Amino acid sequence: MSTVNEKGSTAYLTGIVVVAVLGGLLFGYDTAVISGAEKGLQAFFMGAKDFVYTDFWHGFTSSSALIGCIIGSAISGILASNWGRKKSLIFAGVMFFISAWGSMCPETMILPEGQPDMTLLIVFNIYRVIGGVGVGLASAVCPMYIGEVAPSNIRGMLVSWNQFAIIFGQLVVYFVNFFILGDHIAPLIQSVGEGVNQILNINDAQWSINEGWRYMFGSEMVPAGLFAILICFVPETPRYLASIGEDSKAEAILAKINGAAKAKSILAEIKETMTVKTEPLLTYGLLCIFVGIMLSVFQQAVGINAVLYYAPRIYEAMGFDNPMVLTVFNGIVNLGFTCVAIFTVEKLGRKPLLITGSLGMALGAIGVACTFGNADLQLLCMISIMIYSASFMFSWGPICWVLIAEVFPNTIRGGAVAIAVAFQWIFNWIVSTSFVPMANSLGYWFTYGLYGVICIVAALFVWKLVPETKGKTLEDMTKLWKKK
User: 221, 26 in Cβ contact below 8 A?
Assistant: First the structure.
């Protein structure tokens, strides 16, 4: 264990941040696992005798975790304020584990094994919602936790590591799904009209239909269990401890992170902004809450999850024969460009990255709109998707979480973050459920053209309304919003 010196222990800070960002990894893992499992899952429930598993049911089942995400993020403020940040994350880890087990074995020794019916579909979706609650909690509390323990001069970089973990979790599950599938064949599903489908290779794909999707969901038990155990060994955040009167514990943690002398001045600043434990949400004006909400709305409205959730289908629709390989490659590109944000956010600031990323996404989305469906421009279309995705990864992906973690004053942070993140998951659900119907009915040119326009509006919003928070302490945000 590192000895605490006058500058604090970097090893101590690194250790607790690494554990915290495991929540981000689980966030990414849980949201992306469906991309590899959804075809086998669809084919499995198409075998039900008591109902017809239509496109509607599959769309609902594929996105049911988002219902839990909305619930988890909505209650995150209450749990973070009453239980603390640490206990909230432990609860999230338990939810992840229960969901992974239940999604793998929804029969749970009660229902007949391997017999798809409406009851089993309902039980499966309940387990996915439970996992979504964990994702919603982690998505709100992990950045909050990191933001509250990190020194102001590196806070943006450390919170950005949470986004790196999300993208890394998605990449890991792309590989896991790829290796689980192995030499087995995924089912080929063809529409026969009115939302009804048929399986073209049911005999060859039998393993994927019966077993493959179960292993994909069950694989999450490993990182979920690890996170739930390790989070028990990290401290509570000093700002939460100060808010409940545990000043000596708060100062001890601050001393380990920042050094003994600086810990006293930081604690004094924290106490100065916490004359009351909480304040009404609109204490600092409607603009403060509006900015937080719109950051979340734009992060989803730019359409990125239409790529992350449906990547294999999109590449297949483009005419590529190896959609899973391209999905993995896309994940590697995403990871690399997330690193750009991590290593530049404290040098360039939050706003320049968001504006640049918005314009890059607009270019990529409009490129897809203009080239999709043209066999001669297939490669250019793929490059446009990569530009669109990479631009998100160094901007709205990590920077939105950085700003949500630091833009609100201490006394309203729990509730304000919960509202902002709830809006994020609501718009995530809207984009995820509207993408396929919109692309099928209005065309990919319209869908990606719309995303491109939204990206331009997002750049204007950041330029005009979002404050730059680089180098500011969390206590500075109280002063900033009081002046507005």
Answer: no
What is the rounded distance in angstroms from the CA atom of residue 87 to the CA atom of residue 41? Answer: 33
Tell whether the torsion through CA atoms of 128, 133, 136 and 142 is positive or negative.
negative
> Which one, of 145, 418, 80, lies nearest residue 277 by Cα?
80
Residues 334 and 387 sit within 8 Å (Cβ to Cβ): no
Phi-psi region of 114 (alpha: psi -120 to 50; beta: other; left: phi over 0): left
How far apart (Å, rounded) are the C-alpha atoms in residues 91 and 79?
A: 10
DSSP state of 369: H
Q: Yes or no: say if 461 and 302 are a contact pair by the CB < 8 Å rule.
A: no
Q: Tell me the two tokens of residue 72.
A: 């988890």
DSSP states along 28-79 = HHHHHHHHHHHHHHHHHHTT-SSS---HHHHHHHHHTHHHHHHHHHHHHHHH
Distance CA 421, CA 418 (A): 5
DSSP reduced 3-state for 237: coil
pTM of the model: 0.78
- Rounded Cα distance between 349 and 231, Å, is 30
Are 96 and 131 a contacting pair, CB within 8 Å? Answer: yes
Tens-place pLDDT, residues 22-67? 888 988 898 788 878 888 999 999 999 999 998 888 878 988 898 8
Q: Tell me if 183 sits within 8 A of 205, measured CB to CB.
A: no
Instruction: State which amino acid sits at residue 309.
Output: Y
The C-alpha atoms of residue 60 and residue 30 are separated, in whole angstroms, by 16
Indicate left, alpha or beta for 473 from its phi (over 0: left) and psi (-120 to 50: alpha). beta
The answer to whether the CB of 343 falls within 8 A of the CB of 157 is yes
At 330 the pLDDT is 81
Q: Measured on CA atoms in the order 314, 318, 323, 326, is the torsion positive or negative?
A: negative
CB distance 467 to 407 below 8 Å? yes
User: For 261-277, what is the mean pLDDT?
Assistant: 73
What span, in angstroms and rounded, lies between the C-alpha atoms of 147 and 162? 10
